[in-house]
């Protein structure tokens, strides 16, 4: 048995049987200096493998911080302390820096153009069931030379239970139809549940419009709106759009609208089906929703 194998065996026996190190070294006929040299070699070899795994995870998931990397490793059967992962990411320049960039804001508020609903959600973003609390908003993204003529709008309907994007749309114009079409998609997707849905938005003109309000009323959906100029009232969807931009327009320059649109489709699929979350026990939004629906429906 080599010194490296002896060192590993000593570590395992000490951990399992809590025997003093000096006794184990004597039984293994291994000097203290040889033990520590071998142990250092073993850890360096282990770290090399771990660094490769972390690099692979970060290359696919460019917005992952060390906590989410720990979850991704755990899902692969690799259990490692979060401090070690943080150190490795720092030493290898693997930290996510895209969140440091400023994002472009879109303001759809045009004054009172229809009905303004009460702020019924009141920042109670947590819920214990899917399809109960939905947040929506519109954001702006650009392509080409980033001019006003090269901008598009993205809207999403986000389930506050799992963070899943239940429906979304992209368009060159932030029209009422632009937000109503994915609303109808959401309504058609909603299963037959024993509780009503609350849909929260800001006071944008699309959400005040009679067509939008009537669609909600017809389907017995409770409307809630943020207070004027209070973006924290819709913080979850704001956070989602920031992540969307970090993973797309902050990372890549899109030459055409079609390239931008394809990137949005790819990101939504990634966000729903591949991006794990700590608060979802390391599951993706779709996995978490499917797990819950079987007990609720």
TrEMBL record:
Signal peptide (UniProt feature, chain positions): none
UniProt domain Integrase catalytic: residue ranges: 126-293
Superkingdom as given in the UniProt entry: Bacteria
MF annotations from Gene Ontology: nucleic acid binding
Sections of the chain in a coiled coil: none
PROSITE patterns named among the record's database cross-references: INTEGRASE
Pfam families reported in the protein's UniProt record: HTH_21, rve, rve_2
A biological process term (GO) from this entry: DNA integration
Purpose of the protein: Involved in the transposition of the insertion sequence.
NCBIfam families per record: transpos_IS3
Descriptive protein name: IS3 family transposase
Organism this protein belongs to: Periweissella fabalis
Taxonomic path: Bacteria, Bacillati, Bacillota, Bacilli, Lactobacillales
């Amino acid at each position: 048995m080599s010194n490296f194998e002896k060192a590993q065996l000593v570590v395992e026996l000490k951990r399992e049987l809590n025997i003093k190190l000096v006794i184990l070294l004597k039984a293994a006929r291994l000097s203290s200096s040889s033990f520590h040299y071998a142990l250092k070699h073993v850890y360096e070899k282990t770290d090399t493998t771990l660094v490769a795994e972390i690099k692979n995870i970060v290359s696919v998931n460019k917005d992952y911080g060390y906590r989410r990397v720990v979850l991704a490793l755990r899902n692969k059967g690799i259990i490692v302390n979060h401090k070690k992962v943080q150190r490795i990411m720092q030493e290898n320049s693997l930290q996510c820096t895209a969140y440091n960039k400023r994002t472009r804001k879109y303001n759809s508020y045009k004054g009172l153009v229809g009905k303004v609903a009460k702020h019924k959600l009141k920042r109670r973003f947590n819920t214990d069931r899917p399809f109960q609390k939905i947040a929506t908003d519109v954001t702006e993204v650009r392509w080409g030379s980033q001019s006003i003529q090269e901008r598009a709008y993205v809207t999403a309907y986000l389930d506050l239970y799992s963070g899943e994007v239940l429906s979304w749309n992209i368009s060159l114009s932030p029209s009422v139809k632009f937000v109503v079409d994915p609303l109808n998609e959401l309504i058609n997707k909603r299963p037959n549940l024993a509780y009503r849905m609350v849909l929260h938005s800001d006071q944008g003109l699309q959400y005040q419009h009679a067509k939008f309000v009537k669609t909600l009323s017809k389907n017995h959906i409770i409307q809630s709106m943020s207070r004027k100029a209070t973006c924290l009232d819709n913080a979850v969807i704001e956070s989602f759009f920031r992540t969307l931009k970090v993973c797309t327009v902050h990372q890549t320059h899109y030459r055409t609208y079609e390239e931008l649109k394809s990137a949005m489709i790819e990101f939504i699929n990634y966000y729903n089906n591949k991006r794990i979350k700590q608060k979802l026990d390391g599951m993706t939004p779709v996995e978490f929703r499917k797990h819950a629906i079987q007990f609720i429906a």
